[in-house]
Amino acid sequence: MGAAYFYHLTRRPLEQTLPVLLDKARGAGWRIAVRGAEPDRMAWLDDRLWQGADDSFLAHGLAGGPHDALQPILLTTSAAAANDPVCVMAVHGADISADEVNTLERVCILFDGTDPEAVQRARIQWKTLTNEGCSAQYWSEESGRWEKKAEA
């Protein structure tokens, strides 16, 4: 049984935080789907990941290519990722179901703490998932480092 980890981004934007989390997930040997809600925003994120730090490389692909099933990290808007992930990282308000939380190793929900709509969406997701019996943790970086602030 997995868990949902909520990451409240307040100090660093998604394009800086996501590569760190992806690197940790790859270090655990996981295949990952980064799920967004809009294709244009996923294409933008794909560009940012390719422009990452010179000393790191995150092999990944944008869904719709000929080798989606082989990608260790697949950026997609679909709940049915072709790379058979064990971890899903939801960005830009993408939907996550309780079934996914319970069957995957980990679900990460990253949300922009400066966007009131994103914060409200995350609160609804937390309430929905925990009401359905999912294990969840809330992580905040407001102190300058990641700290677990709540667990259900």
Strand content: 15-25%
Q: What is the fold named in CATH at topology level? A: Rossmann fold
| Helical proportion, percent range | 25-40%
Can you give the mean pLDDT? 94
- What are the segments in which pLDDT stays under 50 over at least 5 consecutive residues? none
- The dominant shape is globular
Q: How are helices and strands ordered from N to C?
A: EHEHEEEHEHEE
Summarize the biggest pleated sheet: 8 strands, mixed
CATH superfamily: DNA polymerase III subunit chi
Care to count the β-strands?
Answer: 8
Query: What is the correct CATH architecture?
Result: 3-Layer(aba) Sandwich
Q: Could you tell me how far the N terminus lies from the C terminus, measured between alpha carbons in angstroms?
A: 14 Å
Biggest sheet strand line-up: 3-4-2-5-6-1-7-8
Using only C-alpha atoms, the radius of gyration works out to 14 Å
Supply the number of structural domains. 1
Count of DSSP-assigned helices: 4
- Supply the helix-strand structural class: alpha/beta
By CATH reckoning, the class would read Alpha Beta
